[in-house]
């Protein structure tokens, strides 16, 4: 005996515990085997050994050795089979161990573990099981989660919802839906579907769907379709099994009794109420202000309060609570005087009843009398809500029939009949919904009540009483009523009998039993089919249908199946009932059985060799097998057995490629040779073949074999089987290569054998959704191949595919264009192949049968009295069409058309229009079949043209278009003919129908059915409406052309009157000139060009398109003919014109308003009256080309119609206004070309505009002068100046001043310029209106730089004319505005001196003197004098960006001089106005000046240059484009280099760079980036050097310019750029692509700025940057942001990055920089959400930069809820800030920033002794601070900021922590967080949230507004050297020093009025206590 055997033998003597935990695994293994045997031998569950063994398993199942663990699980299974429910005490420990150790093991181990769990459930340890599962599904290893879900799935499917509480599972599922592992997600879906089988789909949807992602929802909804029937448990718990066993033993003794199986097996209905967790609504109700609201005097507030309760109570289940007070309140509100409040209260009661159920019974009894009393209300809304609430109270169990007897007795005696009848109706409902036992209890009480009511005087009450009696009889039979019926007269007795018979009361007992039997009978077949396939995994639920078992299922369901088919699928199926369907599912067959069946067919040695382990032998065997198979004579009988043999030997697991190839060849031969290849054989081979397709070595053979299969059984069958195999296979190659085979199959066989819907769904759901690119590409090829056969309609099925895939599909469609009917290359041998063809259209695309979806409920709801229900029904039809991809079958749509026809006569017009749209959609979806299926609904559609509403008629015509697209016009002609003769159609309807017909006939020729339309058209020729007559005439012309002459001549018998004359004339004309031959011959005759174009264009127009004809317009097809007749007439007919009457109607106002519809119609009428027909037709056409033609006619005729045009000038001007309001640029430019000629002509005639004509035209001209196209603006500017000369400057000025108030900035700029023009050229004329300069002066405070510049230019012009007198007219100005004007006036003086134009105001003074001396003669010529003084005017050229607004009246003399400019100003003028070559001289001077200023030690020269820095850069920015354009013409690039060099020198100096304003920087950066992107630059002279220079300059600008401005400009440039700003002509590249490149460049610039934010954070104005980010995000909107986030949009990502960096650096303090963001707006600004998100993310990652002990934590007013901060004084806060600063100084990383902030504090608060705060600090630390402050002062004097300052020496290391701590402990009060101190913007250190803080802030702002700022639109930072950074002159330095003394004044920047008013509003709200943190 070996050692091991001895050990095992010895071990058997040990106790169980020692054996099971022995260190030798073999001992443990033997022990578990023995234990299993012992447990099997125990027969009594109460055996003591059961109790002893129970505790052992918690350790054995966790054994580390896998085989031992398996045996331990076997032992546990044996133990659990022997035990009873008492063993549940060990369940928790054992289950925990299994879940931890066994679920990740081998597959067999997992199976056994699952079996153990099921046994614990059988032993009623369900709660323990579910507790363990809750832990198991949270396992991090997905491999362990799937078995846990599967075992829950098995438990639920086997034991049912009665044993496994669904509520627990429902709680677990949501977290599984979002699991990262797809197998877990699939299993969770399967478990959800199983739940649906047990508790129904609706509860699962309501509870779970809101917690799912949309994709998961969509997938589950698709799967839910396959879930049908009710589930039944297949396994019972042990206790029930024992009970059944006992009953069986008894029944065997007693004998068989009545079977109760059918009733017992019915699963209990799961109440959704029980599945939902109760929700507490009382707490939120308190918070919502309910109690205050219900007491409000306003009904709307009361209604809103109750509505909040209704909303809260609408939850499925409400937590019980004290609702007494709520019910008392509702009782009062039921009787509220306002109906809306009462209805809301009643609905709230209904919701409470549903949510509380029995907990609401007391309250229900309390409220019932009032509710029944309220039934007297006749309003439908009240009655409906009362009925619903009363029914809900009974259904929810709040009331029963016993409870309400007394209330009903009282109510039926009410004096209002309505109360009596409705009460009885409610009682009827209660009886019908109550159990028989409940009715038996109370029928004695209710029958007398009803008998009494039968004598009521009101019929409704009597009928209701009859209903109650009938309901009682139906419930409990006739016996309780027999005595009462005897007392009734015959009439009433008969009526009651009829009602009872009608309700089915007599047969209640009989039918119920019959029903039970039939339902019971059908159950076994369902069970049989389901039990044939047991699902072990939850994921298997997702495969759709269960696999059909072959033979057994057909045997079991033999008699049932044919009848079911016959009923379900109608006629198509009945013909096939005689044929037995082919059995496609192969049964199992062992190798021995196959060998025995083979017999002598194949030699035994060949079969033996196939089994060999040597591959060469197998190869030899398969080769010989092939030869033997080829030699078989009668192959058909042996095909299946041969295929089975090859599938088994060598089988599909064969590893050798050559053998695999031979196997496939054998199968291919069998499939190709056999006359009938069974589908069973295909199924046997398909999985293996599909795997061989994935292998490149066997791919060709496998694909050939699949094609052979398709020839044998049809590709439809192969495709259907492959979908499942490919979808579920783990190898992605199987899918991708399989789809590629499908492509070849479609090309070979076409689509006639395929179910296209299934194929398209497979492509959408599997192919296109695949993560593998190869699969997606293959799918795209497959869809492209389909497109070749079915055409573009396939796109409708793929509308919801991702845009990127759609574009790829479109490209594939282009490669595979639709070829119509294509003959397939290969055919299918099987005759049955047609069965797979889906019911589709001529294009092969499937049409869905919707008859099943169009349910009786939907038909009924189409007739509902409630319009909302009817509308919902119509929308439901639309939804059905959408789901069917707008392709439906005509089958079963008769009721649909019937229901929709009824809605065409609906009283609600909106519903009629909705119905029309739906009918159009149905016609499009059904195609040609709609003509037969629609049952003549077209005639009802045409009747809708009789409506007087234009929208309705348009809608009807749209339906006609849809109908025409589906069926040909000849099918519609009979209906149209009938409609045209219908008197009810109305004039407008007939006109529209004739116009529609004309349009449709235009595209037709050889259409004999057109003759049928001749008679109704000829009758219409005598219609009293001229519009109908004209339309009929036009239609007749088209009928003649389309019908052909011969057909028309045959149908002339019934034609009389004017129609006959027209027809005969046309026939003659056609005979002579053959015009009717078509559009081409028409254009050859002498007709206007536009008309012939119109005709030829109509020839190619799509038939279904429709243009709504403008009133008064004529069909284009007859234009040319009519033009002949009118050519001889005058162009303008002014005989009956009464201009004075028209002018009296004009409202004279200066402000422009868009023309109203009635004004447009009036204009059209006037034009038709006074303009020749061909002219007004063109001018009123919707085609802009026709309008241009009309203007050309006027233009040519203008010299000859001068007199006439004056008479209709007002009409013409109104038409011009209409064109200004339209968006067509071509027409607008033509108008602007014509108007100057017109006004010149009028001036030559000596005519001046009347006031009414000016009032018509000038407001529009002024408002539209700010057009976004520069060319249009120029023309409008010149036109306005012309009108000033032609009309009067005095009268024109008020219109221009009104333009200054326009919302369009460009309009305001143009108007300001025009005011300057008037002052310059017509100063004397408008001298009495100079007060208007106040408006211009006020614009100098605008934020927009262009408006400010324009206003300053205009005022400078005024200063030139008026001199110092101008100050009298400009009104009150701020100091900042005055200083700007001063600067501009000084500049103007210099200009005038240079040009020797004298001094400002001299010309006016001289004029005054001459007027005094010479009288009024000269005054009349004052306009000429002023013009002569002003000199020549320069025209501007716009290069796509804002230009420097310099005086246009100045032309520098130095331009022509050879010696070049002499000083700085002259140099700037030359740069501005000179040619590129001349400007080089100016740039040389500038560069020289800059070099001198840089070398100047005192810096005084630089101070002077800083003032002109912005002007210089603006000039140079404008010059960049001009020089580059000049160089592109082939000239030298010298001027380009000079411009870039000058800019480089400017931006190398930080002071100059900093002085450049934001608007100028915007222009410059845009220009530079555009030229960097321009492809032409590299090809220029020295192009590469220029590109390098542009790059370096751009970097220098980013380094030295004001960083705030740079950020703002670049963020603004992330928006798409206006196409007009691109310098180069449009290349092949789209604007989208160019903008993409531009954005990428801007993003790079922003990245550069963002990288150094950490060191420059104190140099930037965070408020401005945040404002620009806010504006950018708001403009995009949340929808666009989400879309772009998915598309990975660079600009959006960059903006988010900037915001993230700012938040990271400033932390919570960032919220203190939102002064320029309207944080109170609703909905909240998007930026707030992003800031919060960043704060949370960074806080979680611990990456937030410390900004002190605390920061602002709430949006809005942070201190509103913080009493501590509210009481802080400024001193206390200053101390807090000092403490934070000292803390920074104590840190090595932030010591420099800390010293800088401390220096700023000393500057802002010079009186504060900072060293008093450092008493506890060491001398070394104080010395360090003193030295640091001295260094900071030097840096400030040198103009350096912390970003450019070298790192200060860190403080003494020993003191770092100690000093910071000491100071903090001394200065900081406890529990008072330091709020964010915004010293760079507000000197007064108070938090912005408190009331005191807001008062301080407002005072600061008002002081700042009074003190002024040179540039309020541009908000520079207050830096260390204020006078440098703000560009102040040396004279204002004293005021700077004063501002230091007064910190509140010096450090606060003025804000605009909006911010001030917003702050005031916040202050008011804070007073009233309404502000809360957002």
What does this structure look like?
The chain starts with a helix and ends in a 6-residue tail after the last helix. It has 1974 residues and is mainly α. The longest helix is centred in the C-terminal third of the chain and has 29 residues, at 1500-1528. 40% of the residues are buried. Helix 11 runs antiparallel to helix 12 (182-199), helix 55 packs parallel to helix 57 (1026-1043) and helix 69 runs parallel beside helix 71 (1270-1286). It contains 102 helices and no strands.
Structural class: mainly alpha
Question: How far is the first residue's CA from the last residue's CA?
Answer: 85 Å
Beta-strand segment tally: 0
Fraction of residues in helices? 55-70%
Strand content: under 5%
Radius of gyration using CA atoms only:
46 Å
- Chain-averaged pLDDT: 75
* Low-pLDDT segments, ≥5 res: 254-267, 505-533, 544-579, 831-843, 1072-1122, 1414-1460, 1746-1769, 1843-1848, 1853-1890, 1907-1955, 1970-1974
Global shape: globular
Largest sheet: none
Q: How many DSSP helices?
A: 102
Write the layout of secondary structure elements.
Elements (H helix, E strand, L loop, with lengths): L2 H9 L4 H5 L4 H17 L6 H6 L3 H4 L5 H17 L8 H11 L5 H16 L3 H11 L5 H18 L6 H12 L4 H18 L1 H8 L5 H11 L13 H17 L6 H4 L7 H4 L6 H6 L2 H5 L4 H15 L10 H11 L4 H18 L4 H14 L5 H16 L9 H7 L5 H16 L3 H18 L5 H18 L5 H5 L3 H14 L4 H24 L19 H6 L3 H10 L1 H4 L16 H8 L5 H7 L4 H17 L7 H13 L5 H17 L5 H16 L4 H15 L1 H14 L3 H18 L6 H12 L5 H18 L12 H13 L40 H7 L4 H17 L10 H10 L5 H18 L3 H4 L3 H7 L6 H17 L2 H12 L6 H16 L11 H7 L5 H18 L1 H6 L6 H17 L5 H6 L4 H11 L19 H8 L12 H6 L12 H14 L2 H7 L4 H14 L4 H6 L1 H13 L3 H20 L6 H14 L5 H17 L2 H11 L5 H18 L10 H6 L6 H18 L12 H20 L7 H13 L2 H4 L1 H9 L33 H10 ...
Helix pairs in contact: 3-6, 6-8, 7-9, 8-10, 10-12, 11-12, 12-13, 12-14, 20-22, 21-22, 21-23, 22-24, 23-24, 24-26, 26-28, 27-28, 28-30, 35-38, 36-37, 37-39, 38-39, 38-40, 39-41, 40-41, 40-42, 40-43, 41-42, 41-43, 42-43, 42-44, 43-45, 45-46, 47-48, 48-50, 49-50, 50-53, 52-54, 54-55, 55-57, 56-57, ...
């Amino acid at each position: 005996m070996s050692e091991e055997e001895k050990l095992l033998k010895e071990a058997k003597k040990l106790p169980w515990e020692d054996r099971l935990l022995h260190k030798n695994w073999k001992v443990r293994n033997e022990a578990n085997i023995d234990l299993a045997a012992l447990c099997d031998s125990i027969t009594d569950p109460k055996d003591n050994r059961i109790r002893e063994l129970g505790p052992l398993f918690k350790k054995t199942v966790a054994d580390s050795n896998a085989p031992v663990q398996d045996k331990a699980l076997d032992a546990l299974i044996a133990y659990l089979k022997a035990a009873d429910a008492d063993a549940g005490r060990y369940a928790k420990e054992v289950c925990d161990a299994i879940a931890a150790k066994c679920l990740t093991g081998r597959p067999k181990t997992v199976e056994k573990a699952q079996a153990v769990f099921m046994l614990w459930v059988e032993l009623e340890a369900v709660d323990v099981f579910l507790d363990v599962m809750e832990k198991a599904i949270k396992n991090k290893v997905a491999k362990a989660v799937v078995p846990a879900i599967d075992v829950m799935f098995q438990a639920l499917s086997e034991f049912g919802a009665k044993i496994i509480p669904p509520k627990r599972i429902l709680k677990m599922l949501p977290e599984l839906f979002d699991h990262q592992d797809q197998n877990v997600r699939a299993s969770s879906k399967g478990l959800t579907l199983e739940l649906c089988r047990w508790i129904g789909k609706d509860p699962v949807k309501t509870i779970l769907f809101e917690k799912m992602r949309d994709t998961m929802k969509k997938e589950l909804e698709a799967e839910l379709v396959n879930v049908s029937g009710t589930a039944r448990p297949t396994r019972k718990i042990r206790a029930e099994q024992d009970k059944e066993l006992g009953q069986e033993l008894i029944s065997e003794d007693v004998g068989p009794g009545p079977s109760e199986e059918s009733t017992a097996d019915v699963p209990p209905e799961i109440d959704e109420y029980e599945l939902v967790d109760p929700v507490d609504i009382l707490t939120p109700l308190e918070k919502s202000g309910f109690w205050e609201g219900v007491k409000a005097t306003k009904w709307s507030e009361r209604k809103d309060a109750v509505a909040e309760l209704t909303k809260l109570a609408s939850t499925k289940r409400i937590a019980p609570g004290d609702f007494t007070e709520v019910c008392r309140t509702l009782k009062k509100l039921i009787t509220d005087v306002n109906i809306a409040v009462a209805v809301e209260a009643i609905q709230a009661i209904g919701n409470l009843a549903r949510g509380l159920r029995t907990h609401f019974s007391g309250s229900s009894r309390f409220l019932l009398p009032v509710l029944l009393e309220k039934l007297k209300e006749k309003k439908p809304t009240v009655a409906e809500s009362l009925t619903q609430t009363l029914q809900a109270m009974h259904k929810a169990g709040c009331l029963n029939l016993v409870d309400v007897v007394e209330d009903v007795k009282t109510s039926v005696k009410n004096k209002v009949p309505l109360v009596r009848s409705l009460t009885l109706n409610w009682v009827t409902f209660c009886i019908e919904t109550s159990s028989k036992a409940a009715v038996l209890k109370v029928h004695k009480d209710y029958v007398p009540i009803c008998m009494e009511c039968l004598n009521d005087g009101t019929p409704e009450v009597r009928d209701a009483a009859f209903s109650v009696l009938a309901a009682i009889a139906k419930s409990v039979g006739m016996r309780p009523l027999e005595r009462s019926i005897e007392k009734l007269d015959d009439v009433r007795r008969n009526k009651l009998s009829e009602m009872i018979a009608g309700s089915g009361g007599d047969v209640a007992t009989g039918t119920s039993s019959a029903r039970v039997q039939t339902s019971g009978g059908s159950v076994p077949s369902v069970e049989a089919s389901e039990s044939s396939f047991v699902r072990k995994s939850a994921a298997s639920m997702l495969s759709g249908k269960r696999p059909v078992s072959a033979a057994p299922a057909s045997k079991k369901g033999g008699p049932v199946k044919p009848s079911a088919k016959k009923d379900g699928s109608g006629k198509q199926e009945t013909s096939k009932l005689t044929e037995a369907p082919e059995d496609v599912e192969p049964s199992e067959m062992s190798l021995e059985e196959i060998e025995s069946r083979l017999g002598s067919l194949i030699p035994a040695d060949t079969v033996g060799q196939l089994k060999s382990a040597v591959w060469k032998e197998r190869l030899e065997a398969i080769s010989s097998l092939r030869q033997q198979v080829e030699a078989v004579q009668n192959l058909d009988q042996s095909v299946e057995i041969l295929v089975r043999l090859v599938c088994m030997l060598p089988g599909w697991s064969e590893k050798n490629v050559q053998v695999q190839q031979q196997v496939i060849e054998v199968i291919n031969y069998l499939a190709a040779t056999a006359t009938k290849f069974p589908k069973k054989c295909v199924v046997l081979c398909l999985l293996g073949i599909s795997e061989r397709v994935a292998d490149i070595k066997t791919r060709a053979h496998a694909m050939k074999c699949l094609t052979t299969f398709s020839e044998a059984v049809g590709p439809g069958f192969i495709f259907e089987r492959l979908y499942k195999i490919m979808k579920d296979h783990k190898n992605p190659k199987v899918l991708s290569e399989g789809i590629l085979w499908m492509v070849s199959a479609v090309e070979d066989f076409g689509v006639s054998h395929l179910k296209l819907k299934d194929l398209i769904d497979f492509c959408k759901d599997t192919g296109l959704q695949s993560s593998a690119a190869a699969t997606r590409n293959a799918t795209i090829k497959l869809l492209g191949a389909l497109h070749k056969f079915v055409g573009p309609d396939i796109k409708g099925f793929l509308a919801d595919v991702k845009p990127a895939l759609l574009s790829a599909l479109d490209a594939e469609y282009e490669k595979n264009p639709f070829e119509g009917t294509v003959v397939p290359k290969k055919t299918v041998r099987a005759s049955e192949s047609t069965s797979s063809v889906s019911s589709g259209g001529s294009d092969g695309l499937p049409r869905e049968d919707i008859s099943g979806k169009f349910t009786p409920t939907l038909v009924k709801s189409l007739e509902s009295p409630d319009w909302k229900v009817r509308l919902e029904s119509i929308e439901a039809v639309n939804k059905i069409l959408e789901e069917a991809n707008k392709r439906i079958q005509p089958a079963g749509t008769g009721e649909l058309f019937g229901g929709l026809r009824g809605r065409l006569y609906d009283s609600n017009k909106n519903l009629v229009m909705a119905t029309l749209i739906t009918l159009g959609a149905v016609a499009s979806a059904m195609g040609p079949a709609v003509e037969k299926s629609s049952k003549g609904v077209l005639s009802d559609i045409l009747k809708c043209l009789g409506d007087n509403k234009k929208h309705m008629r348009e809608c009807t015509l749209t339906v006609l278009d849809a109908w025409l697209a589906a069926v040909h016009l000849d099918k519609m002609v009979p209906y149209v003919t009938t409609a045209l003769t219908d008197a009810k159609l109305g004039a407008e309807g007939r006109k529209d129908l004739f116009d529609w017909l004309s349009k449709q006939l235009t595209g037709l020729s050889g259409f004999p059915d057109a003759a049928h339309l001749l008679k109704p058209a000829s009758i219409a020729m005598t219609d009293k409406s001229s519009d109908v007559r004209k339309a009929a005439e036009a239609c007749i012309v088209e009928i003649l052309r389309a019908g052909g002459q011969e057909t028309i001549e045959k149908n002339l018998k019934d034609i009389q009157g004017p129609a006959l004359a027209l027809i005969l004339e046309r026939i003659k004309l056609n005979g002579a000139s053959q015009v009717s031959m078509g559009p081409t011959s028409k254009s050859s005759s002498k007709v206007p060009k536009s008309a012939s174009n119109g005709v030829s264009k109509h020839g190619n127009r799509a038939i279904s398109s429709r243009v709504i004809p403008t009133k008064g317009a004529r069909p284009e097809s007859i234009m040319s003919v009519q033009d002949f007749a009118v050519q001889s007439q005058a162009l303008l007919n002014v005989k009956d014109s009464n201009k004075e009457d028209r002018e009296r109607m004009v409202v004279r106002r200066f402000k422009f308003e868009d023309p109203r519809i009635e004004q447009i119609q009036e204009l059209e009428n006037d034009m038709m009256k006074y303009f020749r027909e061909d002219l007004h037709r063109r001018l009123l056409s919707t085609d802009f080309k026709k309008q241009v033609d009309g203007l050309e006619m006027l233009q040519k005729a203008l010299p000859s119609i001068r007199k006439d045009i004056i008479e209709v000038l007002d009409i013409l001007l109104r038409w011009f206004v209409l064109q200004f309001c339209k968006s067509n640029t071509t027409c607008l430019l033509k108008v602007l070309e014509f108007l100057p000629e017109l006004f010149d002509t009028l001036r030559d005639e000596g005519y001046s505009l009347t006031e009414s004509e000016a009032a018509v035209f000038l407001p529009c001209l002024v408002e539209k002068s700010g057009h976004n196209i520069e060319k249009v603006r120029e023309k409008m500017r010149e036109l306005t100046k012309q009108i000033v000369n032609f009309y009067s400057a005095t009268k024109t000025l008020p219109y221009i001043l009104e333009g200054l108030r326009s919302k369009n900035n460009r309009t305001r700029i143009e108007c300001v310029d025009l005011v300057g023009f008037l002052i310059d050229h017509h100063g004397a004329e408008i001298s009495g209106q100079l007060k208007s300069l106040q408006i211009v002066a006020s614009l100098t405070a605008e934020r927009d730089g262009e408006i400010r510049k324009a206003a300053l230019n205009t005022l400078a012009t005024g200063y030139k004319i008026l001199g110092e007198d101008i100050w009298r007219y400009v009104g009150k100005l701020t100091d900042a505005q005055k200083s700007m004007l001063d600067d501009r006036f000084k500049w103007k003086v210099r200009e005038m001196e240079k040009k020797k134009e004298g001094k400002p105001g001299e010309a006016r003074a001289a004029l005054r003197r001459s007027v005094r001396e010479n009288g009024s003669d000269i005054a009349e010529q004052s306009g000429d004098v002023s013009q002569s003084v002003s000199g020549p005017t320069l025209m501007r050229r716009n290069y796509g960006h804002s230009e420097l607004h310099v005086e246009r009246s100045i032309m520098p003399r130095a331009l022509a001089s050879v010696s070049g400019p002499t000083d700085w100003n002259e140099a700037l003028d030359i740069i501005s106005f000179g040619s590129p070559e001349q400007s080089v001289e100016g740039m040389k001077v500038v560069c020289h000046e800059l070099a001198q200023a840089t070398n100047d030690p005192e810096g005084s020269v630089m101070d002077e240059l800083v003032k002109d820095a912005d002007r210089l850069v603006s000039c140079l920015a404008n010059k960049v484009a001009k020089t580059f354009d000049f160089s592109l013409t082939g000239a030298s690039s010298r001027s380009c280099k000079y411009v870039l060099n000058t800019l480089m020198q400017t931006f190398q100096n930080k002071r100059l760079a900093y002085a450049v304003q934001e608007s100028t920087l915007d222009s410059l950066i845009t220009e530079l980036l555009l030229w960097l992107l321009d492809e032409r630059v590299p090809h220029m002279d020295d192009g590469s050097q220029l590109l390098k220079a542009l790059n370096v300059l751009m970097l220098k600008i980013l380094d030295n310019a004001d960083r705030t401005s740079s950020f703002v400009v670049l963020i603004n440039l992330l928006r798409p750029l206006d196409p007009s700003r691109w310098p180069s002509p449009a290349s092949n590249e789209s604007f989208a692509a160019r903008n993409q490149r531009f954005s990428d460049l801007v993003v790079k610039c922003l990245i550069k700025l963002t990288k150094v934010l950490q060191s420059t954070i104190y140099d930037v104005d965070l408020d401005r940057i945040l404002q620009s980010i806010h504006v950018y995000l708001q403009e995009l909107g949340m929808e666009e942001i989400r879309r772009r986030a998915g598309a990975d949009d660079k600009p959006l990502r960059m903006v988010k990055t900037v915001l993230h960096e700012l938040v990271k650096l400033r932390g919570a303090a960032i919220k203190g920089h939102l002064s320029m963001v309207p944080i109170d707006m609703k909905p909240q600004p998007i930026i707030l959400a992003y800031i919060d998100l960043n704060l949370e993310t960074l806080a979680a990652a611990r990456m937030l930069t410390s900004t002190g002990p605390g920061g602002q934590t709430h949006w809005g007013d942070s201190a509103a809820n913080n009493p501590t901060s509210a009481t802080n004084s400024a001193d206390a806060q200053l101390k807090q800030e000092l403490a934070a600063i000292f803390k920074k100084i104590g840190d090595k990383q932030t010591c420099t920033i800390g010293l800088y902030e401390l220096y700023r504090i000393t500057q802002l608060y010079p009186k504060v002794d900072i060293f008093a705060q450092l008493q506890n600090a060491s001398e070394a630390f104080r010395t360090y601070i003193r030295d640091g402050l001295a260094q900071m002062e030097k840096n400030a004097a040198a103009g350096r900021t912390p970003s450019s300052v070298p790192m200060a020496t860190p403080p003494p290391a020993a003191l770092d922590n100690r000093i910071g701590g000491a100071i903090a402990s001394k200065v900081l009060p406890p529990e008072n967080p330091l709020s964010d101190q915004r010293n760079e913007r507000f000197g007064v250190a108070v938090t912005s949230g408190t009331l005191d803080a807001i008062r301080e802030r407002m005072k600061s702002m008002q002081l700042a507004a009074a003190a002024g700022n040179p540039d309020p639109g541009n908000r520079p930072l207050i830096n260390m050297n204020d006078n440098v950074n703000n560009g102040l002159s040396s004279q204002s330095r004293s005021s700077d020093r004063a501002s230091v003394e007064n910190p509140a004044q010096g450090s606060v920047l003025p804000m605009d009025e909006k911010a001030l008013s917003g702050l005031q509003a916040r202050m008011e709200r804070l007073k009233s206590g309404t502000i809360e943190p957002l």
